[in-house]
Amino acid sequence: MSTQVDSQREQRWQETADKFSHVADRLGKTIDAGILETVVVLNILGIPTIASCEGHIDWGTRAPWVDIASTDPATHVSIAKLSTEALQERERDQKTPAEIAAMFEEVHKIRRAVKVLHIQERQKLLTYLATFYEDRHVSYDRRLIIRPLGTDGKSRLESQGADCQEVAPLDTREKKLREYQEEMQAFTTFLKEVYYTFL
């Protein structure tokens, strides 16, 4: 591997890290330091992220997570708005049943097309997770999974036991938060090795 290739990879990493270190949510909060590298490496590997959290003991899911979704412009359509418009047309009772059926069919067609685009991003992530866990053995709750968000194909990367944090005693929540953060960091390290070694 040439020094020039190494230098280009490092430059790309720094540019991507700088970009995401300045990204803020609607409240002006930047990406948590404990999940920033995960966000950077996913995006650098071509898996776009839309939200994230490093996990906090006193609020949220008490586990780190990253949401992924396609950035294709075709996904910017509001399925909920289209569905509402179709329902409103049905309520007005000014269109024929066939016209109403056609409207709902169009909404379903658009939803499927959007879902396909989001799921393509999920499949990229699944490939990396499969390789990561080939020889890695951790408790089932600690293992990273991808779960669907809503019905349009967006996804969340998190530990299997993340939701169970809601009902766990405080000492267990603290212990599991550390474990889940360690697992996300291990996956991030794996992805960085992929980036610096194979791409």
Q: Can you give a write-up of this model?
A:
- The chain has about 200 residues and is an alpha+beta fold.
- The chain has one domain (about 5-75, about 125-199).
- It has helices spanning about 5-20, 35-45, 80-90, 95-130, 170-199; strands at about 50-55, 65-70, 145-150, 155-160.
- It has a four-stranded antiparallel sheet.
- Strand 3 (about 145-150) and strand 4 (about 155-160) form a beta hairpin.
- The model has no long low-confidence stretch (mean pLDDT about 90).
Defining key terms:
alpha+beta, 11% strand, 4 strands
Strand and helix map with partners:
Layout (H helix, E strand, L loop, with lengths): L2 H19 L11 H12 L4 E5 L11 E4 L10 H14 L4 H36 L11 E6 L4 E6 L10 H29 L1
Antiparallel strand pairs: 1-2, 2-4, 3-4
Helix pairs in contact: 1-2, 2-5, 3-4
Unreliable residue stretches? none
Report the sheet-strand fraction.
5-15%
Give the proportion of residues in helices: 55-70%
- Number of discrete helical segments: 5
Largest sheet: 4 strands, antiparallel
Shape: globular
What's the N-to-C terminus distance?
11 Å
**Would you report the number of β strands?**
4
Integer average pLDDT = 92
| Derived structural class | alpha+beta
User: Spatial order of the strands in the main sheet?
Assistant: 1-2-4-3
Helix and strand run: HHEEHHEEH
* Number of separate domains: 1
Radius of gyration: 20 Å
Summed up:
The chain is of the alpha+beta class.
